């Protein structure tokens, strides 16, 4: 009978019936929680709010998206070349694997060509692409001094990435 009355009652009456059917329980836990505006609440799938504390220049993170969408120097060099060095590195925690190859000019000991192949997340691909542009023309000593934190800062990545 109750269901039938709710189904046939007008919309305002059904609101009254449903609110009367649910008693308001004053819980100490409910009173202890601070009132939060609806728009300030985070949903389950919402991104971490710590990303909003990045500098304004990183808000759109154009270099990161640019290197991810259009990676530079992707590919590999011939294994038979004597002036090519190959490095392979992987991150077991997230499954990223990067193969980096450099060609060194024997006359001035600078990196004349760089290629990479990265299998992993978008930040790994963008970082690899950025690195290839950064080291081209550097000496091996200069390239060895590059820190991963510098690349993360330039691409506006969080410190963990």
TrEMBL record:
Q: Where is the NIF system FeS cluster assembly NifU N-terminal domain?
A: 64-161
**What SUPFAM superfamilies does its record include?**
SufE/NifU (SSF82649)
Q: So which residues are the signal peptide here? A: none
CDD domains xref list: IscU_like
Q: Which InterPro entries match?
A: NIF_FeS_clus_asmbl_NifU_N (IPR002871)
Q: Entry's Pfam families?
A: NifU_N
Which top-level group of life is the source organism from? Eukaryota
GO molecular function (one): iron ion binding
Its GO biological process annotations read: iron-sulfur cluster assembly
Name recorded for this polypeptide: Iron sulfur cluster assembly protein 1
Q: What is the protein's species of origin?
A: Lasiodiplodia theobromae
Lineage of producing organism: Eukaryota, Fungi, Dikarya, Ascomycota, Pezizomycotina
Q: Which gene encodes it?
A: ISU1
């Amino acid at each position: 009978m109750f269901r039938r009355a709710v189904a046939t009652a007008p919309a305002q009456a059904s609101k009254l019936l449903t609110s009367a059917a649910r008693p308001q329980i004053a819980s100490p836990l409910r009173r202890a929680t601070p009132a939060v505006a609806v728009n300030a609440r985070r949903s389950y799938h919402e991104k971490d709010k710590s990303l909003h504390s990045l500098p304004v220049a990183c808000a759109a993170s154009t270099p990161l998206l640019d290197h991810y969408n259009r990676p530079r120097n992707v590919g590999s060099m011939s294994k038979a070349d004597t002036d090519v060095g190959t490095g392979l590195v992987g991150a077991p925690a997230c499954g990223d694997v990067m193969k980096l190859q450099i060609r060194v000019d024997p006359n001035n000991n600078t990196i004349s060509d760089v290629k990479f192949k990265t299998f992993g997340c978008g930040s790994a691909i963008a970082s690899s692409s950025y690195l290839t542009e950064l080291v081209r023309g550097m000496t091996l000593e200069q390239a060895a001094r590059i820190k991963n934190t510098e690349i993360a800062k330039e691409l506006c990545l969080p410190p963990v990435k």
